[in-house]
Write a structure and sequence with these properties.
Number of strands: 6
Low-confidence stretches: 332-339
Distance between the termini: 115 Å
Number of domains: 3
Structural class: mainly alpha
Shape: elongated
């Protein structure tokens, strides 16, 4: 056989070999390791290299060949792009799709609901119970005044700015990222509420008063009226006399506010101090913020619980006292505003 013939045959064999390898590689990329569609939680730890991830995928029988998988990641130029986190994978996913999920950072998320009117400590309890944060670390960050200032918060802590909402989160976010998520949501909502209008008072005072409104009533329709009562009292230099502010300032509270509690000296005791407390007493929702930013005009100065979730509003002390007798005469604990 001539030299030219040998070169031709060699080239043909190389072509056939490479074609076979390419077909095999292509078949690997589109062929799932199995047929089971049951989701498996696959965790990529921080600092995990491609080799470690590929070996674990093969061990879990999510792919059939770790070396071919690493080759594909390399060819895509994504060797350093596998994001740490929790992923939802299954055996019926072809390797090419698994690669895209891991390199795009499509981390598995879970809904997290933060109810309206909780304190930062109550939020910390929820997060810690779900193993999302270390409670001590979370509270330490919440009380970091310098960190709060970096978010344009002019107050002693993040209290009041951890916006109540339902979030989609990953389990490895950590305390700092969760605070960032909630605070950024607060600013988005707040800036939307004040768009094209002047704020009635400084932001810290708005959030503080909104937190009091949030704690005073669970009825959305009452919030603007509750806000008007407190705004009217502030204008007349009357004490706010809000039970929730007293409770916030107590070192311990058994669920029953007593008369002696109203005499406990605290910056948050609005039965003893004039004006607003030094900061929010809870984390208000959108409706309470809007009630303060866009208050209704009333002549009310007092309100008292009707014991059904609603309140009776009065413009004079005489009328208020009659309402107290009517709605509260059989109750031991205090409710509503009393002069």
């Amino acid at each position: 056989m001539s030299k030219r013939g040998l070169i031709f045959i060699s080239a043909l064999l190389i072509f056939v070999l490479f074609s076979f390898m390419a077909l095999h590689f292509g078949y690997f990329l589109i062929s799932p390791a199995g047929f089971d569609k049951k989701e498996e939680i696959f965790i990529v730890k921080k600092g995990s290299g491609l080799r470690t991830v590929a070996a674990e995928l093969e061990r879990r029988r999510l792919i059939k060949g770790k070396n071919l998988f690493m080759l594909w990641v390399f060819l895509k130029g994504s060797t350093g792009d596998i994001k740490a986190g929790e992923y939802g994978l299954n055996q019926s996913m072809p390797p090419a799709r698994i690669c895209n999920i891991l390199t795009s950072g499509a981390i598995k998320t879970y809904p997290l609901t933060i109810p309206e009117g909780l304190t930062a400590e109550q939020i910390a309890n929820i997060l810690a119970k779900k193993n999302l944060v270390n409670k001590i670390e979370f509270i330490s960050l919440v009380r970091d005044k310098a960190l709060a200032a970096s978010y344009h918060i002019d107050g002693p802590s993040f209290e009041g700015y951890l916006f109540p909402d339902t979030y989609l989160i990953s389990k490895d976010m950590g305390a700092r990222a969760l605070i960032d998520l909630m605070v950024n949501r607060f600013w988005n909502v707040f800036n939307d509420l004040i768009r094209d209008q002047r704020t009635p008072m400084p932001i810290l005072e708005i959030v503080t008063l909104a937190s009091i409104v949030e704690k005073e009533t669970g009825l959305a329709e009452e919030r603007p009226v509750i806000a008007s009562v407190f705004l009217n009292r502030l204008k007349r230099r009357m004490r706010l006399e809000s039970d929730p502010t007293v409770i916030y300032g107590l070192k311990s509270f058994d669920g029953n506010l007593k008369r002696k509690d109203l005499r406990v000296r605290s910056p948050y005791n609005t039965y003893l101090n004039f004006g607003l407390p030094p900061g929010p007493i809870a984390n208000p929702g959108r409706e309470s913020l809007m009630a303060v930013i866009r208050p209704v005009k009333t002549n009310y100065l007092y309100f008292v619980s009707r014991n059904d979730g609603s309140h009776y509003f009065s413009g004079t002390l005489k009328e208020h006292n009659r309402a107290v007798v009517k709605y509260q005469k059989t109750r031991r604990s205090r409710s509503g505003k009393k002069k």
